[in-house]
Each structure stands twice: as structure tokens, then as C-alpha cells.
Design goal:
Length: 280
């Protein structure tokens, strides 16, 4: 593999090994509760990967697979039960939820102390204010990957393409906290390619296969590809990898870049939730 390719899988394995070691010293295993509502094939794959990784490091999981037509009340009752259970340290509601359920209304009921996805508004606020908080897993993993290249990101121009609650918005805040100059772009942005062409760090989180081509990329940019797009030609990122590789200084591959880091950060957050709840 080219030495420009940032190996997220390798870093995730070393983080997982470290966690496994720490968890093996605990009297009790941390536990993660995962809730899935309805049938979404992509969510099935993500949740299976999360369960497998938990098992590898010694975190127990309890998965609740609820039918598509689950009511708001039924889901809120389950979350309340998990919020108050001493056996549960982390709660994750896999997204997307079916259309009849209001995502924010549901996520806002998860105890901020068990919010290992970092999606509760209290954790969002604490993160923005640089206080101790659960940070969303993908953005947290991206910062760890960036730090393997450069410890100090001060003054770099970062352009984020995409403004989702899960990736775009939180990564923008984390990059501001790293003293980057951050531009957030989205589907309504004018002259997108020329804005991206200014980016020392380009975060592609759009969800469109190979959308970022060579016209978007500055010489020696660091490119973080968050896309996981299933196409007839297989799994593709948001960046046209062959275009980018020639121009960039570093790039995350798809698969094997950001994805494994997201899961590693979920494990880290669950371990931290366990420690917080056990006053360790
Ligand atoms: N769906 C896609 N990404 C995520 C994630 O990071 N967390 C949850 N809960 N659902 C997702």
C-alpha cells in the first residue's frame, strides 16, 4: 500500500488491543445495549460489526431488534428501562429510524451518561465548549487519525463537505477546537470545487460515490473519506481514490480507513461510560 494511505484498520486494532488489556483487569464487564428498529440491511451489517468488536475486547452487548411498526411509547419505555438499569453502561440507537419516529425526540431521552454515540444535545454542548463529553464516534476517530500525521493542526484550512449531525457538524467543531480554520459546505454551496481546492484537510461526508474528483483537491491535501456507498462496482467512498492519490499527501481508503476507527471509538466511549458509572 502507498505510504500516503492512512491505515485506519491498523490503528483501530491497536486501540482495541489496548482496550482489551484494560478491560481484562476489570472485575465486571462493560455492557452496551444496541437498539435497532425495523429492517435496514446496511444497519444490520453495522450492528453485527459493532457486536463482533465488542466481543473481541470483552464488552458484553444486548441487542434489541424491534419491529418496523414499533411505537414511540414502546421505544421510549425500552430506553427508560435501559437508562435506569445498573447492568447497562452504554445505549446506542442505530440510525436511521423509521420515518414515523422523530430521531431527535428519541435520542434526547437517552441518559447523557450512557450516550456513547455522543448525539445527546448536552454532550454536543459540552463538546463545543471543550468540556468532558461523549464525542460522536466517527469525528473522534477522524481526529485520532489526523493526529497520527500531525500532532498540531493549528492554522490549517479544513473544509468539511456535508453538514450531518453525525459527522459534518461535530467534525467541524472538533477541528475548530484543534485551531483549524473551518469551512462547512453542503448541497446548496456555490463553487464547491474551488472552496475544496483551498483545503489542507478535506473531509468528505456527502454520501455520494466518488463525488470528489481532482478538481476539488489541493496539492498535498490530507483527505478523509467518510463515504460508504454501495454501488454496482462495489463499495466506494465519496472521493475518487485514483484521482486523489496522485495529488494528496494522505488519504483514508474505503474500506479500511474511517469505518474501523468509528467502531474503535464506540468501544472507547463504552469503556469510559463504564468507568464513569463505577467511579473508577
Ligand atoms: N448510523 C450510521 N452511523 C451511525 C452511528 O455512528 N451511530 C448510530 N447510532 N447510527 C448510525
Amino acid at each position: 500500500m502507498s505510504n500516503k494511505v492512512l491505515n485506519g484498520k491498523e490503528l483501530a486494532v491497536s486501540i482495541k488491543n489496548e482496550l482489551k488489556q484494560k478491560i481484562s483487569c476489570l472485575d465486571k464487564k462493560p455492557n452496551l445495549a444496541v437498539i435497532m428498529v425495523g429492517n435496514n440491511p446496511a444497519s444490520d451489517v453495522y450492528v453485527k460489526n459493532k457486536e463482533k468488536s465488542c466481543l473481541e475486547v470483552g464488552i458484553s452487548t444486548s441487542t434489541y431488534k424491534l419491529p418496523e411498526q414499533t411505537s414511540k411509547e414502546e421505544l421510549l419505555n425500552l430506553i427508560e428501562k435501559l437508562n435506569t438499569s445498573n447492568d447497562v453502561n452504554g445505549i446506542l440507537v442505530q440510525l436511521p429510524l423509521p420515518a414515523h419516529l422523530n430521531t431527535d425526540e428519541i435520542l434526547n431521552t437517552i441518559s447523557p451518561l450512557k450516550d456513547v454515540d455522543g448525539f445527546h444535545p448536552l454532550n454536543t454542548g459540552l463538546m463545543i465548549k471543550k468540556q468532558k463529553a461523549f464525542t460522536p464516534c466517527t469525528p473522534k476517530g477522524i481526529i485520532k487519525l489526523l493526529h497520527t500525521i500531525k500532532k498540531d493542526l493549528t492554522g490549517l484550512n479544513a473544509v468539511v463537505v456535508g453538514r450531518s449531525q453525525i459527522v459534518g457538524l461535530p467534525i467541524a467543531h472538533l477541528l475548530i477546537n484543534e485551531n483549524c480554520t473551518v469551512t462547512v459546505t453542503h448541497s446548496k454551496t456555490k463553487n464547491l470545487a474551488s472552496i475544496c481546492k483551498n483545503a489542507d484537510i478535506l473531509i468528505a461526508a456527502i454520501g455520494r460515490a466518488e463525488f470528489i474528483t481532482k478538481e476539488f483537491i489541493k496539492e498535498n491535501a490530507i483527505i478523509i473519506d467518510v463515504g460508504i456507498n454501495r454501488t454496482k462496482d462495489g463499495l466506494k467512498g465519496d472521493v475518487k481514490f485514483s484521482d486523489a492519490l496522485d495529488i494528496c499527501s494522505y488519504i483514508t481508503p474505503v474500506p479500511g480507513g474511517v469505518g474501523p476507527m468509528t467502531i474503535a471509538m464506540l468501544l472507547e466511549n463504552t469503556y469510559d461510560a463504564f468507568l464513569n458509572q463505577n467511579n473508577s
